[in-house]
TrEMBL record:
InterPro entries: GP_PDE_dom, PLC-like_Pdiesterase_TIM-brl. It holds the Pfam family GDPD. CDD domains: GDPD_cytoplasmic_ScUgpQ2_like. Gene3D superfamilies: Phosphatidylinositol (PI) phosphodiesterase. Residues 41-291 form the GP-PDE domain. This is Glycerophosphodiester phosphodiesterase.
Length: 308
């Protein structure tokens, strides 16, 4: 009898925990940054629309906004003198005429570089943005020039104090309700959420794994997310992540599901049909056209670009 009771103890405990969780679990609340954008599918310009112009530049952000993108996505690093700078890689070679780690140069040195130097639309035949004054912006400049534009901001460096500086910059500019902050560094997200409560964030890698596992077990309704957006690729390491079931579960937990990096229109259509709420794309023009919100890039040719 005693052995039988012991045999039942573990499963009964699990059922009790699951029941308790299902009674107390709460979906995420829609953050102000998304509420302001309504219910239509969102177009998020990945790095400002890196397929169309030099990534993570004021030039790109200005044009993507003018094109009609709903949100601007950007990446943050720190200069050697502790300024928040908007650049994707930890090193300078891929996008600028500089060399070495971003973190080794001061803001003045970083801003002396040409951030349009490597951009080419024809595989290196031509470099139309070289010498045009495009440079690495500070995050403060982006906040100053685009105060009302919703932003997806990615913390690229952990353990360097970036999280607190980001919170300070958002608070100082009055833009805490204009951003979704994400990171591949789970500890950065934890730190950011502690230092900046109430600011919308996206799921870090561990949270994505937990959500995938719960969905797979049919236990998605137990989740009380500490984040408001789910930013995921369609596939990761050959495995399909963005299943219809996962997107349904995420949506049921109040999450805004944003798929990256979706550049071709058939893929855009596919993920929207699966239930994605937003397309993070290098080509916001293609997404806008697909959604019937077309804006002609040609009309932008004389658009006044922000000067350095
Ligand atoms: O939003 C997530 C996406 O930006 C991650 O990709 O490498 O372009 O930062 P990456
Ligand atoms: Ca990014």
């Amino acid at each position: 009898m005693l052995r039988f009771a012991r045999f039942l103890l573990a499963p009964l405990l699990l059922i009790a925990i699951a029941l308790l969780l299902s009674l107390t679990s709460r979906p995420a609340e829609r953050p102000a940054v998304l509420a302001a954008l309504g219910d239509r599918p969102l177009v998020i310009a990945h790095r400002g629309g890196r397929g169309l112009w030099p990534e993570n530049s004021l030039f790109a952000f200005e044009r993507a906004s003018a094109l009609g993108a709903d949100m601007l996505e950007m990446d943050l690093h720190l200069s050697s003198d502790g300024e928040l700078v908007v650049i994707h890689d930890a090193t300078l070679e891929r996008t600028t005429n500089g060399q070495g780690p971003v973190a080794a140069l001061s803001l003045e040195q970083l801003q002396a570089l040409d951030a349009g130097y490597r951009w080419s639309a024809d595989g290196g035949e031509s470099y139309p943005y070289r010498g045009q004054g495009i440079r690495i912006p500070t995050f403060a400049e982006v906040l100053q020039h685009f105060p009302d534009t919703p932003k997806v901001v990615e913390i690229k460096v952990a353990d360097a104090g970036l999280e607190e500086r980001l919170c300070e910059a958002l608070t100082r500019s009055g833009q805490r309700d204009r951003v979704i902050v994400g990171s591949f560094h789970e500890r950065s997200l934890k730190l950011f959420r502690q230092s900046c409560p109430g600011v919308a964030t996206s799921a870090g890698p561990a949270s994505v794994r937990l959500l995938v596992a719960l969905d797979w077990l049919g236990l998605g309704s137990l989740l009380s997310p500490s984040y408001q957006a789910l930013q995921i690729p369609e596939r990761h390491n050959g495995l399909a992540i963005a299943s219809a079931s996962l997107l349904r579960t995420a949506s049921g937990r109040g999450l805004n599901v944003q798929l990256w990096t979706i550049n071709e229109q058939p893929a855009m259509r596919r993920v929207l049909d699966l239930g994605a709420n937003a397309l993070i794309t290098d080509y916001p023009d293609r997404a806008l056209q697909l959604l019937g919100r077309s804006t002609q890039i040609g009309a932008l040719s004389n658009y006044p670009a922000l000067t350095p």
